[in-house]
Structure formats: C-alpha cells, structure tokens
Amino acid sequence: MTARKILAHEDRFETKGVTIAFTAPTPHDPKLVWACADHPDPDLFHPTDEAGLAAAQAFCADCPVRELCLELGLRRDEYGVWGGVLLENGKPQSAVPRRGRPPKVGSAA
Length: 109
Ligand code: SF4
Hints:
Layout: H1 3-12, H2 16-23, H3 50-60, H4 66-75, E1 80-82, E2 85-88, E3 91-92
The chain binds iron/sulfur cluster (SF4).
Iron/sulfur cluster (SF4) is lined by residues 34-36, 45, 59-60, 63, 65-66, 69, 81-84.
GO biological process, one term: cell redox homeostasis
Main location: cytoplasm
Cofactor: [4Fe-4S] cluster
C-alpha cells in the first residue's frame, strides 16, 4: 500500500460517524427493546415546542432502555430527545431552543 493510500484510509477513519460507530455503537441485542423503534412519527423526538417535548418525554418515560439511550445520545453529540432528555449537540437542554431570527428589540410597531 502506498503512502497516499494509507493517508486516504486514515482520513476516512477520522470522520465523526465512523468514530462514533467504534466508540459508541448501538448494541444489537434482541433482548433490548427500543420503545420508539416502530414509532410512526420520528419527528416526535425532535420537538419544536414545550408541548412536543412533554409528549416525547412521556413516551420515553416507560422505555426499558432509557438509560442506555441517554448514554448513547450524550456520547454521540446527538440532537433531539434521547432517554427522555432533550439534547443539542450532546448537551442536555432545559427547554426547547427558539428557532429563527430573534425578535427586533426597540422597534416601533
Ligand atoms: S428512551 Fe430512547 S429508545 Fe426509548 S423511547 Fe425514548 S428515544 Fe426511544
């Protein structure tokens, strides 16, 4: 293998997704029951308001893999609700962040 090929090979393994696959893989154990695996609305776990967050947290409340799910979300720098906790780049959030342009301050209406 030439030096150039070795470098290309190493570059491929420096991507975040591959790193996560090695450091925080999803366990494929048939005994683990991921409660949301067949949920018809994946958007539930990416809430845009507090009511949506409450709905996702209520769904996660009884999930048997809740702690493992949260651990994976934290280790993978994930977004959305993992283990009943809203994450943004792997950091727990206390509220749903506001999206879009902030309101103008001091503008005459
Ligand atoms: S805890 Fe994780 S696996 Fe369980 S329902 Fe919530 S998001 Fe899905």
